[in-house]
């Protein structure tokens, strides 16, 4: 029993160190175990949604369920106690949904906190625990715009963003040229915008939470506001962008107070 459990944890640690899916035979070879045993463990983990299988390579990688488990623990920490009042204040000021997306692993963001400011029946689902896709969501773009070239290239390769189009989870194809323009606009203006990109009738604005890095600040998170386009028309977005920039600066202070600059999560 102990040896079997050791193998489970060995596989988890091996997958955690990889940026891409790894084949069963490679798992077995690196850990010095039979391929049949590796396959049996990975199949069980897949059944529990702890790993994902790449449809193209049939290799395995860890799922966001591990991140979600960590976020449950994080939700009871002083970090949430500090950031929640910031989100609540901006939600009340804007009357819309404010969310915080944090980098939970290499190239992946997850929504970890939110505050709903709308009292209307037409509201946006907070989507707590879901992934904020880097190249599709406003929060993802705000985060991606302030990464190194190496990180950006790796994230886009993982998402299979090609020079032409991508038929991912968005209802609209993603063109690399447009994405690059969006990221450049975010760097210039300080915030990213999406309108009808994920869902028709939904607008979002997000600003990066920047921490001190060398040679330039890097985003470890992004704070966003989302709501129906009827309440968030184009002319309202710059003002909301300014508010998200202000919120992001406050949240960056949380990283400075509770964590080590450059870390994904404050400690």
Shape: elongated
The Rg value, from CA coordinates, equals 20 Å
Count of beta strands: 7
| CATH topology group of the largest domain | Beta-Lactamase
Broad structural category: alpha+beta
What portion of residues belong to β-strands? Answer: 15-25%
Low-confidence spans: 163-172
Number of helices: 9
N-to-C series of helices and strands: HHHEEHHEEHHHEEEH
Strand order in the sheet with the most strands = 4-3-7-6-5
- The total tally of domains equals 2
Any idea what the CATH architecture of the largest domain is?
2-Layer Sandwich
End-to-end span in angstroms? 34 Å
Protein architecture, described:
The protein has 267 residues and is of the alpha+beta class. Helix content is 43%, strand content 18%. It is built from nine helices and seven strands, in the order H-H-H-E-E-H-H-E-E-H-H-H-E-E-E-H. The strands form two sheets. It has a five-stranded antiparallel β-sheet. It has a two-stranded antiparallel sheet with strand order 1-2. Strand 5 and strand 6 (202-211) form a beta hairpin. Helix 2 (24-31) packs across helix 3 and helix 5 (78-94) packs antiparallel against helix 9. The chain is elongated.
